[in-house]
Amino acid sequence: MRQIIAMGGGGFSMEPDNPLLDQYILSQAHTDMPKICFIPTTSGDADNYIERFYEAFEKLICKPSHLSLFSQNFMDLKAYVLQQDILYVGGGNKRSMLLLWKEWGLDTILKEAYEKGISLAGISAGSICWFEEGITDSMNDTLSKIDGLGFLTGSNCPHYDGESDRRLCYYELIKSGKMAGGYAVDDGVALHFKDEELSASVSSRPTAKAYAVNRKTNKVIERELPVTYLGDRKQ
Length: 235
Description:
8-stranded mixed β-sheet
């Protein structure tokens, strides 16, 4: 089974004292001790970001590692990626990330990993990247459309409640036909896709929401999706 867990915000980097989403990601692996690899390319492999990943995941039941393209920590990139159970992409500059991935051939390797059944996850830019397109502020700090890897059809807009301009920009792009409809999620919400179909929406915050946003005869229709608060579940 192919799985993608796309987070609008949350996880260890935004909620260091709230591990609900990170625990959920680990719980979807097909092993009791999953190997989870953090890919922090969007941050330029920032040391602090990597350190926070280890600080969070060394407390959980898993085998954490990270993949650095700036300070190479592998002998064979493909072999390193394909030995993982979960690949977790961080947030940051999506445009730079995708350019570097293509330079290394990592985009093709990620596709192979996905087809093999290795779970993919990510926050913000690490969420958008799995879709055909999305909203990013990676270009001159202004919101704009950017293409993704296209493992999932449609578009994605993270931080729907966390950044005031996101909703308006997403609406305008969909209304104008410049962007396909898709999914918008608040900080703290993750969309869980199985075999390219939305299987569940879960959250680390009791009131966080997710939406399907689509264009219909020059109007934008925003439909709220059911979201399960993970704090009500036994981990």
